[in-house]
Amino acid sequence: MTSFDRRLTPLRPDLAAAHLRGQVDAPAFAEPRPMRVVAPAAWLRRSPAPDSPVDTEALFGEGFAAYEITDEGWAWGQLETDGYVGWVSAEALAPAAAAPTHKVATLRTFVYPGPSIKLTPTAALSIGSRVTVSREQGDFAALATGGFVYAAHLAPRDSAESDFVTVAERFLGAPYLWGGRTSLGLDCSGLVQVSMAAAGRPAPRDSDLQEAGLGAPAPNWEQSGLRRGDLVFWKGHVGIMQDAERLLHANGTHMLVISEPFAEARARILEKTGADVTSVRRP
Question: Under CATH, what is the fold of the domain 164-282?
Fold first, then answer.
């Protein structure tokens, strides 16, 4: 029997995505309903319950292929950005309309009810959020979904930062949050994914998938040394080298995104878990 990764395959014992017909046995198949996230962020959960474990966080404007929307207000489907599968509150979604034209390029930006910073914001959008700009009004961009964003905080959707490490460094001091992908809280692989996405480099969501799919092994790194942008992996953890000596990572020990000497982090993780670095990948 073919093995499927539950994180990336829209397959349940009772339902599967229509494109899997012929590959899997399922009592029913469903065509996707194109949706888009309209909440500032939304948790993607393993089951349709508010106390279900969180796998990741969907950002405003991300596409979501819904294969089921229940009467209880849950949608089961797959995120367009990284293919992650799970359950999202249906209230966080709306039918996909105009394609996003821009993305949030600052850590966070406010949505105002009008083109004035003196108005009370109605929402805050995180870096990587996708928006559709309908027009510009002074220093503001009017969004097709309603509200105004300071235009300088946006960038064309297809634009790219020159250095993903510089993006990651903006998150210094942000709290660690399992499954998080925003400056209000994010985890180790979320930091890598969001930072690389800002630089136009798509990355998988979880550290094991990143280790398997990003870049190439850094040759003889123990002897030749590490470089800025190298990704250092442990079992269940990843960090980003800022230079040959310092590691930037969101971690559960400090519950923050921190910068520290790589040698100190390596020794601490080895002492705490008994596990050493599994690989270094060079994007």
Answer: endopeptidase fold (from Nostoc punctiforme) (3.90.1720)
Distance CA 121, CA 13 (A): 43
Tokens 């994007």 — which residue? Answer: 283
Q: Are 174 and 185 in contact (CB under 8 A)?
A: yes
Using one digit for the tens of pLDDT, what is the confidence trace for 236-255? Answer: 999 999 999 999 999 999 99
- Are 121 and 111 in contact, with CB atoms under 8 Å apart? yes
Strand partners, 149: 111, 141
- DSSP-based three-state secondary structure for 38: coil
Tell me what pLDDT residue 1 has. 46
Assign domain 102-156 to its CATH superfamily.
SH3 Domains (2.30.30.40)
- Domain pair 16-95 / 102-156, same fold: yes
- In this prediction, the residues of the chain whose per-residue pLDDT falls under 70 are 1-2
CA distances to 39, 68, 69, 256 from 94, in Å: 9, 14, 12, 33
What tokens were used for 19? 């494109």
Can you give the pTM of this predicted structure? 0.96
Tell me how far apart the alpha carbons of residues 207 and 189 are, in angstroms, rounded to a whole number. 5
Report CA dihedral (25, 30, 36, 37) to the nearest 10 degrees: -60
The H-assigned helical ranges of the chain are 164-169, 188-198, 207-213, 221-224, 262-273
Domain ranges in the chain are: 16-95, 102-156, 164-282
Contact 188, 251 (CB under 8 A): yes
User: 162: exposed, middle or buried (C-beta count within 10 Å: 0-12, 13-18, 19+)?
Assistant: exposed
| Residue type for position 120 | T
CB of 58 within 8 A of CB of 64?
yes
- Asked if 260 and 246 touch (Cβ cutoff 8 Å), the reply is yes
At residue 97, the pLDDT reads: 87
